[in-house]
Predict the structure.
Amino acid sequence: MTNLSKRDFLKASGAATAASLAGCLGGDDDQLTFWWIEGESEQFADLNQWLEESVEEETDRNLELTGYAYSDLRQNVLTGGRQGTPDVIEGVIEHPGDYVAAELLEPLTDHTDEVPHFDGFLDSALDAFRFQDELWALPYTGNGRALIYNQEVLGEYGYEEGPPEDIDEFMELAGTINADYDDMNGFHLTTERGEVRVTQEFASHVYQHTDGPLYEWDGSEWELQADADMFEAVLDDIYYRMFHGDQPTVDMDYRGSGWETNDVGYTEEEHAMIHCGPWIDGFRDTDQQEEVLDEKTAVSLLPKHDGTSDATYMEVKPLMINAHSDSIDDGLVVASLFSSPESLELMAEADPGAVATPVHEDVESTLEDEEWMAFNDAFENGVAPAPVAWGRIRDPIYDAIEEVIYEDQSPGDAAQELETALIEEDVTLDPEAE
Amino acid sequence: MERLSKYRREFTSLSTETWLGWGLLLPAALLMFVVIFYPILDGIVMSFQERSFLRPDIRTFTGLGNYTALVRDSVFWTALWNSAVLTGVSVALQFLLGLGLALLLKQKVPGISIFRSITMISWVLPVIVIVIIFNWLVQPGYGFVNLILDRFGLPTNYWFSSTTWAMPLIILMHVWKNAPFFAIALFASMQSIPDELYEAAEMDGASAVQQFRYITLPNISYVAMIMIVLHVLYTFNNFDFVWLSTGGGPLRTTEVLPTLVYREAFQQYALGYAASIGVVMLVIMMAFTVIYVKLEDFD
């Protein structure tokens, strides 16, 4: 066997470095890049393969799919997107605003004729991406946040038709369940600092009071639509009562827990009721989870205060085109193919929850169980978040929720502080604005 | 005249050698400037500007505005205090535990080589894996720690969400990861102490404690100090343990300077303000770096 000399090693290292640099700097004209969260997922292998083949057929270019966690994806797009990579970007509903502010997105308003199935998109889903007089993304999946509950448990308390609509009665029921069961909480919400679900669940209840988004553009600036009274109603009647009411709905251990505890916990019968979206249907690792989801679970709209609306948090996933891409047209082909009914059918096969409430008229809902149909109503009542700087809004919301659940402040004081903070925060995404 | 000419020749030669030296140094110096000094300088300049992460090309000079805001920001002081506590306590514990482990590893007993290898496992684990393990252990309902506590009738909790226990738990993760590295470094240092010293001490009737106090400790002090300073730098700058486990909560009890910088830069988009926090960290860390360099020069 030949010994590897230092000289050989240096030569090999030099060649490898040169090749790497060539790969980084040279680029590949035949390649399109698409970043989406499931880019390298085995679960979506069929869909990804179909997409790669279809793109190659229509553009004569290879498609490179890369998967990122959303926080990394957003950061990488914001820091490196100007170099033209990726050509097509998938994300969450709060991302397009950031990218538009960074001048990274190609407006799609004048390109809609190039999307063959464009007329079939639901207006509400498209509206989530219309701002500054332009359409900035194509939707491909969406849902409205609803209440998931264990029918069997609620039936024991005489609520066979679903939980009470009134929030007061609802929290009383949840408290009673919690007190009666040693190993099951009545009603659980996520409260972990930094967890995106926390702000979405909080916003769902605030939207019921505002019957629309938290901020609206008044022609010159973003104006807060909620006030301290609304915040207090939500913080007091839900968050405070959840841990510190006369009958708490959940054990104190659960303060500050995240989505895993919430979603997985529900399917393992740790909670009788939670906030969730259709993806809950995907948590089927054990027989117990299958049984809970198939035989015991039903869905209803979220409970609310008297005189408020059924509004809830709407989540729509966008497909965006990088304005710095070397071929906007080819990027549009990718986005068009990925949001097409054919693609969504393949997506439904891999994850039925993703197409439970389709954003396109030509796609059939994967919902079959009558007990789950309330997801359709939740999607119709859904409110898309305003395209503002959500990072600046989230911190004061986490502060308010933590102060209430740790009894650091009364719900009234926390609500007052939250209102002041949200009015004072500069939520505009335009760095050149005043 | 001839003498002058000799000096000229020497001077010319020296000057040529010097220029050659400078010439050889130049590429490395340029590389260092581009890779190290330029980003630092830009960061310092940025701390005097208002800049958004979304459009970093737009800069507005604000003088000491960011620093004034920093002094008035209670979250900054909380993060500074938490960073100091996290660094001080975890490095102290790492050293003490590492020293204990090193003494254990030094024992000549059967199977010690396997034990040495096992000791290093927690050091080679990636931070994210450690956080997942700990997070799983303390989950409410089904976490192993809570199940055990529940079995003995003791109070359970989601310990990462406890204002009392979140920081100790983060410190514990740091110690769990880094104590083995302290142990190996100190053990290696102990191996270099000549056996004759211990034999002589034993003949003089020195007890084990006296041998440790007067032979082992002085001989490992140099390595120990280097390790402590390095880990102070690492822990003070560490971001991932805190961010992945608590995100700085609950109620900011685990907010540290690196998480605050990240939050300000990438979530609030306030690059200038984040840079000013970074500069404060730089100044504090420079003090430790000076100590480190002095120690390295110590003969």
